Amino acid sequence: MLITLEGIDGSGKTTVWEGLREELDGSVTFTREPTDSWYGEAAERSIGDEAADPLAELFLYTADHADHLSRVVRPALDAGHLVVSDRYSDSRYAYQGVTLDGTVEDPMAYVQRVHDPFTRAPDLTLYFDVAPETGAERSGTTNKFEAADYLAQVQDNYERLIDAEPDRFVRVDATQSPETVLATARSEIERRR
Question: If DSSP states are collapsed to H, E and C, what string results for 83-117?
């Protein structure tokens, strides 16, 4: 089973991911995107580059995702592991769907079409819901992807994804205490495991 943790920056995904690493036992593979591969490092470098071309940036993230699938996700699933990923393809759809606005027609659909031939859809996605202003404040607005107005557009894209696949997404109120958010996430995973 592939479980992904999604939400805007500052929503608590990584905090939950780290907590789940301490609490879930058995055959569980914890991973994240961007990865620690050279593909992921290239994608990370683009985050700090205000002048990065949005289309080139999309393909850096897409290359990292393809490598992630072949090197980590598919082998772990084939071995019968539960895979928990902090960010996955939905992040690309939501974030690059904003950065590509004005570059291609219907940016989010474009990004999905790029991924469709090779990606593996998650079985469950926990969506950590928080206001864009809260996310920007929590994340410290340290890069171009963490500004509240940008995060509001990203959140709109996540809402489109949720509307399209309501059975895959579980909305988690990320305004609650970190302990409550973690307990909710763990409970949802255990219920479906």
Answer: EEEECCHHHHHHHHHHHCECCECCHHHHHHHHHCC
Tell me the β-bridge partners of 85.
Answer: 4, 31
Number of H helices, E strands in the chain: 9, 5
Looking at the domain 2-192, which fold is it? Answer: Rossmann fold (3.40.50)
pTM: 0.94
Chain centroid, CA 14 distance in Å? 10
pLDDT at 2: 98
pLDDT tens digit sequence for 79-131: 999 999 999 999 999 999 999 999 999 999 999 999 999 999 999 999 999 99
CA 22/CA 6 separation, integer angstroms: 19
DSSP 3-state assignment of 120?
A: coil
Which residue ranges make up each domain of the chain?
2-192
Only one residue has tokens 């696949």, namely: 165
Q: Are 109 and 157 in contact (CB under 8 A)?
A: no
Residue in this structure with the two tokens 């302990």, named with its chain if needed: 179
